[in-house]
Each structure stands twice: as C-alpha cells, then as structure tokens.
Amino acid sequence: MDNCISKKKQILYEILFYIVLFLVTFCSYYIFKPRFSWIRNGVVAQIFALFGVVFCISAVIALKKHNQLTTERLVFFMILISYFIRLGYMLYTSYDSRQYDTITSNFDGHEGYALTIFSTGKLPDSNAYQFYHPPLNAAIQALFMKINEVLMPIFGGYKFNVNDIHQLYQTCQILSVMYTMVISVTSYKILKELKFQGKSLLLSFAFLCFFPRFIQLAGQLNNDLICIMFCFLTIYYTIKWYHKHSFSNIILLAIFIGLAMNSKISGAVICIPTAIIFVLEFIKSIKKKEKVTTLCLQYVLFLLLCAPIGLWFQIYAKIRFDQPFGYVFNGLNSELSTADHNLFERIFLFINFDEIFGSIFPSSWDNYSLLNYALKSAIFGEFAFWQGESFAVLSIFFQYLFFFTSLVLFILYFIRAKKEDFLLKLLGGSIIISQVVALIYFYIQMPYGCTMDFRYIVPIVIGYSIFIGAAHNKFEGAGNYMKYCKFVEYMMFGFLLFSNLFYLVCI
Q: Is 406 in the same domain as 495?
C-alpha cells in the first residue's frame, strides 16, 4: 500500500514539476523573447539564464555545506541547471535561426506543414519537401498555435502581433523546451530502472542531462525532437516491461513506439533493442514452459496498437500520393554531395586532420568524414557561431579524447564483466549498434553532407550513458582500471562543461 501511495505521489510530483516548468517557460517567452525586445538580441535572455544557473549552483553548494545534499537533490538541481541553459538558448534563438528544413520560400517546410494544419484543419494537399513526414509534430504545433492565438494578445503586449504567422509559429519553441525536459526526467527514470545509484547514477545522468545537442534542440522546431522524446520513453518502458511483463507496460510501450514513428518514420530504429528483448524473453518463456500464452497475447496487443499509430500515415501517403514506404526526400542540393570521396574516406578514415582541424564548426558543404562530422555536430549541429570560440575548441578537444578513450573503456568493461550485467550490455550495445548502423546505411544511400548529422542518432546517448555507469560500477576499487575509468570521466566532464559554457555565452 505504501509503495502504491509512493508511486501515486511520485506521478503527482512529476506532473506538478512539468506544470511549473511549462508556466516558467511560457512566461519567460513572453517576457524575454529577444526578437521583439531589447537592443542586441538575446543579451537579456542570456543574463536571465545565467542567473538561473548561478542560483542553482549556489543552492547545491549551500546544501553541501550543511550536509543536506542527497543524490536525489543533486539530480533535481542538475535538471534545473540544464533547464535554464536550454531555456536561455531558446529565448535568444528565433524561429528562423539554426533550424532544419523549417522555413522555405515555397512554404513546404515544417513551418508550412504546421501552418497548413493550423489554418485549414487538414493535412497538406501534397507530399512536397517536408510534407512527406508523418504529421504528429505539425498537428501538435498547430494546436498550440491555436491556444497562443488567444493568449498572445493577453500576455504578449505591443511586442507581439497575433496576425504575424511567424510570431505565432515561433511560440512552438516553448514546446521544444518542454520536450527536452521530458527527455531529462525520462533519462533519470531509465537509469533508476536499471538500478544505477550513487556516483554511477550521477555520472550517467550528467552525460544525458548536459549533452550539448539537447540545448540546440530546445530551440528547434522540426520533428526531430518529438521523435527523440518518444524514443527515450520507448526505452524506459522497454526496461519496465523487461522487469515486469504487465499489460500496462506493453500498452504504453506500443503507444510510444507508434508515436515515435508517427513523428518521424526513422523512429522505427528504436524498435530494434525492444525487438531483441521481446525475442529473448519469448525464448526464455518457452524454455521454462511458463507464460507463453500471456506473452503471445501481449505481442499481438503490441502489434494491434503500435502498427496503426506508427504506420497509418505511410498507408495514407501511399494511397494519396503513391509515396513509397519508408520514403525519404532526396532532392538535395548537388553541392552537398560527398560522392566524390570514396567509401573509405567517408566512413572509415577516422583520423582525418583536415576534417578535424580544418574548421571549428562542421560544414555540410565541405566535410565528408562521417565520424568527425557526427562528433562535431553532436555539439554544434551543422551551424557556425560567431562567439565563444575558445569554449568551442575546448569542448571539441575534450570530446575527441572522451570518445576514443571511452571506446577502450567499454571494450575493457565487456571483457571484464563477462556474464555480468546482461541487461546493461544487451540494451546499451543494441542501442549503440542499431543507431550507428542506421546512420552508416543512411549515409551510404544518400552521400550528402547533411546526412551525417548527429540529430539522426541522438538516442545513442542512452547506450553511452549506460556503459559509463556500468564501467564505473565494475571498475570501482579496481586499481589501474579505476584510474583509467576516472580519466575517461574527467574527459567527459571537460566535454560537457565547455560545451555548456559555449551555449551560455554564444548568441
């Protein structure tokens, strides 16, 4: 009974937490959004975000000084610090800055998609450019614009014009911030469900909470972020179902996978770790000769829920536009092509000094090395910035050290763990491998600079965080192994610290 009450309270607190964050984000948007306010766009929003970060750090120091800093409280303030950084980035980033396939002259990008549904209440009459995507992101944005159409005159004042469709569409950045916060909270729940605790929990969560790409995603308006959010929820409920084969867990798992695919069809990649666990659990039940019928019923229920939610638009687009299943728009600018470089140069040439040192920021027009582009775009996307270069260089430096040393650490972990940590190795490994293989396949099929972007494989950070915590647990107190593990962790801290500082100072 106590556990039941505790769970109910936990759900209630989580809902209240989201409500408070939404209200703060909503009010901050209308107060600080720089496009319609002070000279030197963004500086006031930047100071506001910095104030929030300093306040949280001060609170942590005070709690530590009075011996009241528990793991849970530290996690809470880590979430708040990441929130203020993301909120600040959103506030100084307009709807037409550092976006992907969003604003187009033909009105067929993600903005056009959302505004078509907003103005007509119907799907677009064509599958041109970004209209080939499933409509979930655009539909939610259209609904949110309807709400802000009413609220903007009340809260916006003279700085906002409800008749300006761009200003109305830009309010959807509030949703983007909230999506990233759902990802942060879900990340913590994933690690708790995997039984991480203490320092290993904090290390793994820090990697997920402060991963720099989530900062940029907090200001972006395309369908990447909502798909990523549902992928994280999918992993969480996959683990919950693995621990308890309940019908409620399988139903929620089916819904979230379906919603990921209804946001972006590439969300189907996240099904691979889940499918592997489904197969292994089914084999286990057959060997034990128990719960076979129950599992079969759950798998049928899973398909009956997931398939319609995730695939209905593919069928609709096939009937309406004769759009092939799994279609990806490929009418890209030929200047972005990397086909003049051979497969070895593009995929297997890791140590490429021109790609690493040629420029600070990645360029989809000039770069061709998949690994180097993916690593840099994990921090900066495919964009260049004009401030904070020193922090940018330091974040890249630590990122490369962390990446290569962590690979060695993970190999050592697999060798030393042997039959231990089955779920951690299975889940972490299947997430990383499936995401990497999907990206390589995509890049081979479409050899363009923009197809190397880390945004296509963001769920890979879950696998990385799992191995970070698992390796720490395995090598804690293990002499030289632990020294090497700590070195990798220091490189991770350097990467996270300087990349987050970069977003705090750049505009």
A: yes
Of the CA atoms within 13 Å of residue 166, those in its CB half-sphere come to 10
Residues 399 and 495 in one domain: yes
Cβ neighbours, 10 Å, residue 60:
18
pLDDT at position 9 is 86
* pLDDT tens, position by position, 227-266: 999 999 999 999 999 999 999 999 999 999 999 999 999 9
- Residue 454 covered by a domain: yes
Of 234-243, 300-309, 414-423, minimum mean pLDDT range: 414-423
Residues 421 and 472 in one domain: yes
Average pLDDT over all residues of the chain: 93
Residue 337 main-chain phi, psi, to 5 deg: -65, 140
Contacts of 482 (CB under 8 A, 6+ apart): 475, 476
Q: Hey, which residues does 337 pair with through a beta bridge? A: 448
CA distance 332 to 330: 5
Residues 257 and 347 in one domain: no
Q: Find how far residue 132's CA is from the centre of its chain.
A: 22
**φ/ψ of residue 448, rounded to 5:** -130, 155
Residue 224 in tokens: 């990447």
The answer, yes or no, to whether residue 318 has pLDDT greater than 90, is: yes
Cα 386 versus chain centre, distance: 25
Using left for φ > 0, alpha for ψ between -120 and 50, and beta otherwise, residue 421 falls in left
The rounded distance, in Å, linking the Cα atoms of 487 and 482 is: 8
- Per the structure, the complete domain to which residue 395 belongs is given by 334-505
Query: Rounded to whole angstroms, how far apart are CA atoms 47 and 41?
Result: 12
∠ Cα 488 80 56 (to 5°) = 90
Compute the distance between CA of residue 272 and CA of residue 434 in angstroms, rounded to an integer. 7
209-238: average pLDDT: 97
Residues 6+ apart with CB under 8 A from 95: 102, 103, 111, 166, 169, 170, 173, 221
Which residue type is seen at 351?
Answer: I
State which amino acid sits at residue 191.
Answer: L
Residue 276 sits in the same domain as residue 416: no
Q: How large is the C-alpha radius of gyration of the chain?
A: 23
Worst-scoring range by mean pLDDT, 20-34, 103-117, 337-351, 477-491? 337-351
What would the 3-class secondary structure string for 73-131 be? HHHHHHHHHHHHHHHHHHHCCCCCCCCCCCCCCCCCCHHHHHHHHHHHCCCCCCCCHHH
Q: Is 169 exposed, middle or buried (0-12, 13-18, 19+ CB in 10 A)?
A: buried
Q: Which of 506, 500, 504 is nearest to 398 (CA)?
A: 500
C-alpha distances out from residue 372 to 3, 70, 345, 362, 376, Å: 48, 38, 11, 8, 6
Look at residues 184, 265, 187, 245 and name the one whose alpha carbon lies nearest to residue 217: 184
pLDDT at 2: 42
Considering Cα of 268, then 270, then 276, then 282, what sign does the dihedral take?
Answer: negative
